[in-house]
């Protein structure tokens, strides 16, 4: 029987945002081949009480598709929520970059932003003590630019080769399958105790920053230094910061615990309700711009992702704002299938040598090949650039493009109108490198405690008390005493009083020896400018 509405195909159309969706007006239910279904309640049986027949292709199609509904969740940042919006530039960076998204004042660039927790699975709660991912995909007229950041300005490790170990330590333990979404367990603190470079990040992780009151009230940081490249080829280093116009706000631990019990979807629901009721969250985009010569004067290495650049050294410059104003039509199609990648840049933006960033440039595309199952996942509408794009890549699973003609290579003489190199296409910064090849970590990465100390000292007494309580709670869940003692040892380099409070809370009588620090801890107190970081 033909579909009575005379459409022999399922009505899949391009929505206003370019996304594919099934037309809500279609009234006849069909198979995927367009066959109208007369009975969607009963399978085909040999007799009313007899066996179900293999012949029932409608039953088989329906159940087979259902059986394959799930795709692998993200290996980290599995639990997330996202929204569409736009970025509007208010200050031109034309002196520093050729990227049109950063030079054309007033221009609105559409974007998709996904917020996430890091450790838990996709069905975990919204409010554990955890870092929040803050990933933004801007559909610029020069290609997609992804700023894949977190709500903390630094990271746990300095080199991407340690990332699988960090994640294996924080995720549920392999023998028992828990904890689902919390860092309060032996393997996480064991790894941390043996990784002194993580101490700065640990101070942030134990602060109220990891208990946000709302996703609308978190900052976002690109973390690494990137480069901007101008018309003349000159490069300037840049750090990116998103600053919520609602200010940074957190819950306290007791609230977070109660919310986790009362509403697992607390943050997802809050973002949904605020956007669908027209109460659009917005953020300023600010940059810190600095030269190699300035960087040479910093008392730390800006290529080390465990360090931030205090505003007293490089002030923030606000250059635009992001507004999130449209909830996705479909969670799976958009929020789940969106694929961010730090290597998605546009001409005029380039990478620094930060070894953590360099590893990330490889990891995201690689993992997305298995998560999304095809090298053509850029054709999923949420991932597709909104500017023209063309090349000679072809075929592969789920290929939706049908190039015409016989030429699928370049250079060629047979298709003079085909895609060619562009003089204003992406070029890497021209940088001279010298030194000895090897598995070496620069000595300039050795100071693991000074900024941890400066962050702790920049907190109010209440915030410091929260940090001490968080450390006592987390470490009290650690069964192995030597791990607890090792952390207390590190804390002595950060602040003796903090170390004492945590030791007392854990019932430690004899203060352990602090480990040997690879570089002297800078005792200077934070300046007022450092204290403003994150206190909006
Ligand atoms: C996912 C941030 C370090 C590998 C993510 C996401 C964010 C993020 C926000 C979620 C993206 C989304 O919403 O889809 C960061 C930051 C890092 C960092 C800020 C350090 C500064 C690393 C490193 C690696 C890595 C060092 C590996 C070497 C991954 C992978 C995913 C991911 C594999 C899952 C991506 C996907 O399946 O779509 N990261 N990450 N990350 N990150 Fe990172």
TrEMBL record:
What are its E.C. numbers? 1.11.1.6
Class in the EC hierarchy, top level: oxidoreductase
**From what superkingdom does this record's organism come?**
Bacteria
Cofactor dependence: heme
Q: Where is the Catalase core domain?
A: 30-418
Recorded catalytic reaction(s): these are: 2 H2O2 = O2 + 2 H2O
Instruction: Tell me the GO molecular function terms.
Output: catalase activity
User: Keywords in UniProt for this one?
Assistant: Heme, Hydrogen peroxide, Iron, Metal-binding, Oxidoreductase, Peroxidase
User: What is the protein's known function?
Assistant: Decomposes hydrogen peroxide into water and oxygen; serves to protect cells from the toxic effects of hydrogen peroxide.
By sequence similarity, the record places it as follows:
Belongs to the catalase family. HPII subfamily.
Q: What is this protein called?
A: Catalase
Lineage of the native species? Bacteria, Pseudomonadati, Pseudomonadota, Betaproteobacteria, Burkholderiales
Q: Covered range within the whole protein?
A: 1 to 536 of 688
